[in-house]
Amino acid sequence: MAERSPLVRMTGVTKTYAGITALADVDFTVHAGEAVCLAGENGSGKSTLIKLLAGVEQPNLGTIEVDGILHPAMTPSAAAAAGIAVIFQDFSLFPNLSVAENIAFSAELSAGVKLFRGRHVQALAQRTLERVGVQMDPFAKVERLPVAHKQLVAICRALASEARLIVMDEPTTALTDREVRALLAIIRRLKADGVAVIFVSHKLAEVLEVSEHVVVLRNGRKVAEGPASEFDARSLTHHMTGRDLTVSGPVPLDAAAPVLLTVDGLSKPGAFQDVNFTLRAGEVMGISGLLGSGRTALAKALFGLVTPDSGRVTLDGREVPLGNPVGAAEVGIGYVPEDRLTEGLFLTQSILRNVGVGRVEAHARGPLLDLDALAAEARDWLVRLRVKAPDPAAAVRSLSGGNQQRVVLARWLARAPRVLILNGPSVGVDVGSKAEIHAIIAELATQKLGVIVISDDLPELLATCHRILVMVEGRIVEDIASADATEDGLARRLAS
User: Which residues, other chains included, contact 323 with Cβ-Cβ below 8 Å and sequence gap of 6+?
Assistant: First the structure.
């Protein structure tokens, strides 16, 4: 039986930026109806390969073929005409337009349509939604949709433009487990319809579940390739990082450790109700729940970003002012948000400034600011948290997700908090950075900080936490010692 021709073939592609090699002599193929897992840590070359495929960048060396046709200089319009679509993490949708308008926009643009055709747009959108088996109001404004629905709109937009290859960049980062299951079912449906998918994700188990083929990049080179059946999460991690990452669980908790934080009867109707717990010095406590369980609202309430209607919070016996983030920070509570890009970082400011902004008052000398001392302290924290930053004066947006997360951690640790709340500490980071962040959490526990980890990543909770609180509809329904918990058991409790 003759080997079928690939839909896309990239041969010997090499890309350099200012003398730095981002990709080196990489071969990559995708067949129709196939899902390929493109794996690698941040900085491995995944994004560069996708940009070359989408025509956003051109290779210095190598060739790109689609259906056997050579594209010496792939451009975005040529990629779109060849049926290649990339769904980035921000989805690139028009929030003020309807679902139908977003789905049909690219197809109408490619067809050269100059006037809006309402009936045609609605019919095209409806056919595309039915193709993926999704029911959604085509008249709904995209800005009002949950993340999972926005992602479906982006997929439908690609299909409406007759995409034959869809690249999904971190498609499951902001989804709940239930939404991930639904997305994987849609990917299977697309494959059965002959659409190829390149799946880029840090959640390795999900990637392997839906992919037939795996390609692993490290430092710009292809280091492993083969059928997905030949890989598991452990082997993928080894190929991605070049080392074996062990999961040892949380450091033992001192039985005599004093109580640091007490939460008593905290309530905000519609968000969370009658929340009670204590946190001890050196303890890492997890809080998990499905989307809408109240876990993030609770985290923000502990830091003063949400004002409870009743209840009290005390730290070291001192009452924490509710609804006052400045007051919460002053008594020793720190908060690392889940969305570091919009809530945790000043993206256009330097890495040093992002670390040092929380310590400005400590380096004030009357009306003046000791900038040298502030910068020196910030540099010290970058070293201590192993932030990979070739130029600390560069904008923080130039860093990978894992390094950005460590910058936010550095800012708070420089303030020497007593309790640190981490909301989704490893969201959107690669496996190597994730392991390093977990090691930082363990180190904080040995320093007698109290740490609260908000996450729906169950392996992460089991690896880092001494106990896990389960939230359902705004209430804590279980308090489980991690030593007595399993991933399957937690998943059942969350789904119940």
Answer: 304, 306, 307, 308
For 312-336, what is each residue's pLDDT tens digit? Answer: 999 998 999 999 999 999 999 999 8
List, in sequence order, the alpha helices (H) in 134-232: 147-160, 177-192, 204-210
162: left (phi over 0), alpha (psi -120 to 50) or beta: left
Instruction: Give the angle 394-395-399 at the CA atoms, nearest 5°.
Output: 90
246 CB contacts (<8 Å, ≥6 apart)?
A: none
What are the sequence ranges of the domains in the chain? Answer: 8-241, 259-495
Structure tokens at 68: 């056997």
Does 259-495 match 8-241 at the fold level?
yes
CA trace torsion 281, 291, 186, 49 (10° rounding): -50
Each residue's pLDDT tens digit, 22-35: 899 999 999 999 99
Containing 365, the helix (H) or strand (E) segment is strand 364-365
Question: What's the distance, Cα to Cα, between the start and end of the chain in Å?
Answer: 50
Query: DSSP letters of 97-124?
Result: SBHHHHHHHHHHHHTT--S--HHHHHHH
Report the C-alpha gap between 180 and 45 in whole angstroms. Answer: 25
Helices (H), 242-310: 295-303
Instruction: Please tell me the distance from the alpha carbon of residue 29 to that of residue 165, in angstroms, as a whole number.
Output: 12
> Who has greater pLDDT, 338 or 485?
485
- Are 358 and 415 in contact by the 8 Å Cβ rule? The answer is yes
**Measured distance CA(342)–CA(332) in Å, rounded:** 23
Fold held by 8-241: Rossmann fold (3.40.50)
Domain 259-495 in this protein, CATH class: alpha beta
Residue 344 DSSP label: I
Tell me the C-alpha distance between 64 and 391, whole Å: 34
